[in-house]
Design brief:
mainly alpha
Length: about 240
């Protein structure tokens, strides 16, 4: 008896996809916990409770957060590689193009976790533990803006991931370069803001509160969908 999960290309693809689901749920679940639950709680609680949680709770949560991001990122790369290589899916097919949009969002989000949020949060944690005298306010600011940006990105990212196979389009690759170019430009603009803006600045206002970041994310997902319909659908007479 053959074990299909390990001996066929489709089985291997599903195994990697399952890992992607598990790690993705962990990562995005922790992202939403930080932004929708922990952040508002820290704003309302007393200083001692916040300090104690930063010392003991936050490091544990960040461990699951960053490694969930890592395994989601690696399994996502593996999925696309298997699809393009072993399964032979055309590089300009609807699935590849739309899943690439999700992958672009996800890659930037992964980079924010490992190279922005985690390094800055380490300083905040060290201050709470009395291991440094450095003022953690700038680090907390940068981690906050990057985390809010990731929350903002996650909504169109999940839309694209689901749309790759489940959204029926009268697809045409004729203008996919324009489509991808616009998506990349938008991501770059918002990511530059994540790396440079102050949390009290005007460019962070659309994502500063929980309500605002959810609303902005949904709008970005809608924009992504409209761009798909405008640029990835066959024109009349084509």
């Amino acid at each position: 008896m053959e074990l299909t999960l390990f001996t066929t290309t489709n089985g291997l693809y599903y195994l990697v996809k399952y890992i992607h689901f598990l790690s993705g749920v962990t990562w995005i679940g922790m992202l939403y916990y930080f932004n929708f639950v922990q952040g508002p709680f820290f704003n309302e609680t007393d200083a001692d409770t916040k300090k104690n949680a930063t010392q003991k709770l936050v490091p544990r949560a960040l461990w699951w957060f960053r490694w969930g991001a890592m395994f989601t990122f690696l399994s996502g790369i593996a999925m696309i590689a298997i699809a393009l290589g072993a399964q032979g899916i055309p590089h300009n097919s609807q699935w590849v193009v739309v899943i690439l949009v999700g992958a672009l969002f996800g890659t930037v989000m992964w980079a924010n976790v490992w190279f922005v949020i985690w390094p800055n949060q380490k300083v905040v944690i060290a201050k709470a533990k009395g291991e440094t005298t450095v003022d953690p306010a700038p680090n907390a600011n940068r981690a906050f803006v990057a985390s809010r940006t990731n929350t903002f990105f996650s909504i169109p990212m999940l839309f694209a991931m689901g749309a790759a196979r489940n959204l029926p389009l009268n697809y045409s690759p004729e203008r996919l370069r324009i489509f991808l170019g616009i998506i990349v430009l938008l991501i770059v603009i918002f990511e530059v803001n994540a790396l440079r803006a102050d949390q009290n600045g005007p460019t962070v206002k659309p994502i500063k509160t929980v309500k605002a970041v959810i609303t902005s994310g949904v709008i970005f997902a809608l924009v992504t969908y409209v761009l798909m319909e405008l640029l990835l659908v066959k024109t009349q007479g084509a």
